Amino acid sequence: MPLQPAPVTFEHLRDGLGIGVAEPRLSWRVPASPASQKAYELELDRAGVLHRTGRTPGGGQVLLPWPDRPLNSRERVSVRVRVWTDGATEPSSWSEPSTVEAGLLHAEDWTAVPVGPAWEQDPESDRRPARVRREFTLAAPVSHARLYVTAHGLYEAEINGRRVGDDTLSPGWTVYGERLRYHTYDVTGHLAEGPNAIGAWLADGWYRGRIGFDGGYRNLYGSDQSLIAQLEVHHTDGTTTVIATDPTWQAAQSPILFVGLYEGETFDARLHHSSWSTPQPTGPDAAWGPVATAVRDPRTLFAPGSAPVRCTEEILPVSHSTTADGRHLLDFGQNLVGRLRITVDGPAGTTVTLRHAEILQDGELATRPLREAVSVDTYVLDGSGRQTWEPRFTLHGFRHAEITGWPGELAEGAVVARVHHTDMRRTGWFECSDPMINRLHDNVVWSMRGNFVDIPTDCPQRDERLGWTGDIQVFAPTASFLYDCAGMLDSWLGDVAVEQLPDGTIPWYVPVIPGGPAWTPIKPGAAWGDVATLTPWVLYQRFGDLGLLRRHFPMGRAWVDLMARLAGESRLWDSGDQLGDWLDPIAPPEDPAAARTDRYLVATAYFAWSARHVQWAARELGDAETAAEYGRLADEVAEAFRARYVRADGRMTSDAPTAYSLALAFGLLADDRQRQIAGDRLAELVLADDARIATGFVGTPLICDALTATGHVDVAYRLLTQTECPSWLYPVTMGATTIWERWDSLRPDGTLNPGGMTSFNHYALGAVADWMHRVVAGLEPAEPGYRTIRFSPRPGGGITWAKATHETPYGTAAVSWEQTATGLSVHVTVPSGCQGVLELPGRAPLTVGPGAHHLDTGDLDRTAA
């Protein structure tokens, strides 16, 4: 079969419709083959006008520059590629064409203004949402049509009675005053010549709804609830009709009586008629009034860089019980984020109430961990027959649900849990011979899914759900293996840059909302603020996106410059409020920062590590002078760290696992002797506590690597496989299906941790999965974008086989190994355009090219003999 490249993709998007850059970068994959690309040719078709690059030497396949003049707004271009491989005199066949279409690239492209309800509302109350609509007539047949839309709040659009798109909670959460995302939809099939109607459901969302802890805050970005929509219809006769939100639109109260992201949704079907978004609607909501207009600077509107939030899976309950008072308790067998879809029939006015929780206590929903996020959805039947309903504008974190008011029997399939998160492409898989470790890895995946909801949140269920910078800083290596999250995190880092204070301070969480006296005013904190330097570097290493690294470099540099000013000539950051090794197991519930390790040791270590990352980033960006400057700074901080925190005998002043892990993982020790002393002491401490976890947010992602690097991989496996509390596997023994916030969120006696901060879905402590991918299975990038792949499994812990697969930017990389009677049998797959380096225990590194390879260390031993 002739070689054919995969279709071209644009930036980090799966779909090029509505792209927000005029010169999108191009990527493609060459099918797995021992041959590698040596040259390529791109063809661009602009409405029948072809542009070909001609044969272009090079093996580049990832994020190549746009090869022609920039796109205009709305311009549509078809792109395909063919390649020449090693030894081939003829090119491959052309790839299937891919289409990229620019969105509205300039502020002057927008004529729409925000429109919403004109009736008076109390901004401090629970306000009833609105719907807005407009009828219009198309005088000629439709060639193609696009809807560009966003909102102050949340929206779901309909045209002629049909839902537009399948996304949820759009336009998502950004720093709305500076950046408001809009989406582009192909609505050609929704329209026809003659009468038409367009409408949208609206909700408060993050824009004006209650968000945050300690009672939350309303109207953080504005008090209006408005749609901004621009429907552009292109006709077969060459004319264009534009229907934009303006004062001619109408508004009416929604059958959603109230909805909040934390509170849930109440829907009265008696007030709804499906014809509301059709021409000349009928039914109970046929009376519409004027709209109020608001103000939006179109220069703040931008197109998405990643997929939206969608339903990605449906799950049926695994068990169902009925209480004596008629309530139904459902267990879905998996702690998830989403909402319930119900199919129900009953008399008009019947009220069905849905409550949600992550766990049960004494056979009832345990709602205390939700704090003020009541997570209750209510549906009032209209008596018209069987109806299917799902909330539109809320999400819950839950495994268990309680249903009251259900009319008649609850039939199988009548209630389905629908899982929602940012619809990223899955790219990484891991499995081994230990079922408990596999369950741990599954828990990590599920926690990532539940917390990657437009932004990377800390938890998805209680009255918080914020983009904590420290959580994603430690988890980004794991996240970028499991899913293609480059576009999503790139966009979120853009908001981090917007929220960065003039002095360089990075907020604790982004977007910033009031946080009470503990978090306001914003103060610089180590490990959290270092998201500005460490996360762009991780994304560059994993996805090979130098543009991303360049884009966020000023933010990281400003953060390091701030730390340098705070530390002064001593180069020790030993002042200010620090969270330190947050959630060390010894920390009492009321003081999560009370850790074994000196919090200023943590701060100075991160200062050195971030300075080193600025050095590396500057070097990659071609700025040798800046690289040298920050290299000197990193050396100075490391020297100051040793002078203050490393004793003459090689032990740390904080004789705790996190202190040694930081010193080793961040390269802060002077020589091999110091490193070995630190590694030996770290192993001693771990074993002295019978390999129970003694680290928090900072130490947990590092400790296994620190042990492995100093010859104690066996101790790292002891940590991984420990089942007593605190440990990674203790929650697994307690039935966990996601990663917990606290090591003992559920205590051995089955009671809840008494702390007010107790979540059962918190990915940060699952950052160990990155070590599982790189060391247990043995797959990691040795060059940015996996252009060179290191296969370096380190068996242990009684595990007899392991495997990992990762969809790199170039194609599928995989490793599997198993213990045999004679040694280790290893299979690896290297994608086209890449090379692999096999580093097996006790063996010299072996470089291999694209394709599948098998090595057996027993065979190597016999050959050597």
Description:
α6 packs across α7 (599-620), α7 (599-620) runs antiparallel to α8 and α11 (703-709) packs antiparallel against α12 (713-721). The model has no long low-confidence stretch (mean pLDDT 96). The chain starts with 8 loop residues before the first strand and ends with a helix. It is of the alpha+beta class. The longest helix is centred in the middle third of the chain and has 22 residues, at 546-567. The protein contains 15 helices and 45 strands.
Keywords:
865 residues; alpha+beta; seven-stranded antiparallel β-sheet; 15 helices
Mean pLDDT: 96
Count of extended strands: 45
Distance between the termini: 42 Å
How many helices in DSSP terms? 15
| Major sheet attributes | 11 strands, mixed
Shape: globular
From the alpha carbons, calculate the radius of gyration and give it in angstroms: 28 Å
- Which structural class best describes the helix and strand composition? alpha+beta
Strand proportion: 25-35%
Low-pLDDT stretches are: none
How much helix, percentage-wise, in residues?
10-25%
Helices and strands, with pairings:
Layout: E1 9-10, E2 16-19, E3 26-27, E4 37-46, E5 49-52, E6 56-57, E7 76-85, E8 98-102, E9 115-117, E10 130-138, E11 142-152, E12 154-159, E13 162-163, E14 167-168, E15 180-181, E16 183-186, E17 194-203, H1 205-208, E18 226-235, E19 240-244, E20 250-253, E21 256-260, E22 264-268, E23 289-293, E24 301-302, E25 309-315, E26 319-322, E27 328-344, E28 351-357, E29 360-361, E30 364-365, E31 376-380, E32 387-389, E33 396-404, E34 415-422, E35 428-432, H2 435-451, E36 452-453, E37 455-456, H3 469-482, H4 486-499, H5 531-543, H6 546-567, H7 599-620, H8 624-645, H9 657-665, H10 672-688, H11 703-709, H12 713-721, H13 730-733, H14 769-777, E38 779-781, E39 788-791, E40 801-808, E41 811-819, E42 824-830, E43 835-838, E44 846-848, E45 851-856, H15 857-864
Helix pairs in contact: 3-5, 3-14, 4-5, 5-6, 6-7, 7-8, 9-10, 9-11, 11-12
